[in-house]
């Protein structure tokens, strides 16, 4: 059996997302980019049962922060090489692996994500 729950939030869920970044071009061939992102959510279950002793739930307030850097070098008009790395960290309700409470926390609250590539445009 299945059903649709159309009123599953006890209070309004608010998620705020913002970001900022800078890009610098060195000698018209190399671009360096640095970015920062943040996502915040509020407690949206009533009554809030959000504490380390009660066990965090996905409905608890939480934060995700991510910072990344990216280097792109243009060898020719059609051939680039790039490399980058991103680091992210979550806490609170955003650090729950299973979204129904009390949640199972992630094994690691942080993550490194490297990338590298060499695209050729036709």
Structure, described:
The protein has 122 residues and is mostly beta strands. It has strands spanning 15-26, 30-41, 62-74, 80-92, 110-117. It is built from no helices and five strands. A hairpin with a 5-residue loop joins strand 3 (62-74) and strand 4 (80-92). It is elongated and about 60 Å long. The N and C termini lie far apart (52 Å). 11% of the residues are buried. The mean pLDDT is 85.
- What is the general shape? elongated
Structural class: mainly beta
Q: Biggest sheet: strands, sense, closure?
A: 5 strands, antiparallel
In what order do the strands lie side by side in the largest sheet?
1-2-3-4-5
Number of domains: 1
Number of strands: 5
What descriptors fit this protein?
single chain, 122 residues, mainly beta, 5-stranded antiparallel beta sheet, 5 strands, elongated
Topology record:
Layout: E1 15-26, E2 30-41, E3 62-74, E4 80-92, E5 110-117
Antiparallel strand pairs: 1-2, 2-3, 3-4, 4-5
Give a short synopsis of this structure.
The chain is mainly beta.
């Amino acid at each position: 059996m299945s059903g649709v729950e159309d009123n599953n939030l006890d209070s309004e869920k608010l998620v705020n997302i913002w970001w900022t970044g800078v890009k610098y071009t060195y000698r018209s061939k190399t671009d360096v980019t640095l970015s920062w992102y943040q996502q915040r959510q509020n407690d949206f279950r009533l009554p809030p049962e959000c504490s380390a002793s009660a066990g965090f739930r996905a409905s608890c307030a939480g934060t995700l922060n991510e910072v990344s850097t990216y280097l792109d070098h243009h060898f020719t008009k059609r051939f680039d090489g790039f490399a980058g790395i991103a680091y992210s960290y979550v806490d609170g309700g955003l650090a729950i692996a299973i979204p129904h409470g009390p949640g199972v926390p992630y094994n690691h609250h942080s993550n490194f994500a490297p990338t590298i590539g060499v695209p050729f445009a036709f």
